[in-house]
Amino acid sequence: xxxxVATSSPKQVGLAYVLWFFFGAIGVHQFxxxxxxxxxxxxxxxxxxxxxxxxxxxxxxxxxxxxxxxNGVAAV
Length: 76
Hints:
By secondary structure, this protein is mainly alpha-helical. The protein has one domain. The protein contains four helices and no strands.
């Protein structure tokens, strides 16, 4: 019996915040987290007119933890 091993590397909160700071309005931090649909939404609405970016300022650490847990990788 073989076990599946997670091949994706853990996402980092610091890098997610850097991407959010410089490219948040176009959703690059959402693409980094693998949330393509939300990334496209941010891209076409400029971060949902800035409101989504403001929300992400406070929720980004929990989003990173959620993605890492879903992918089965431990945070660094």
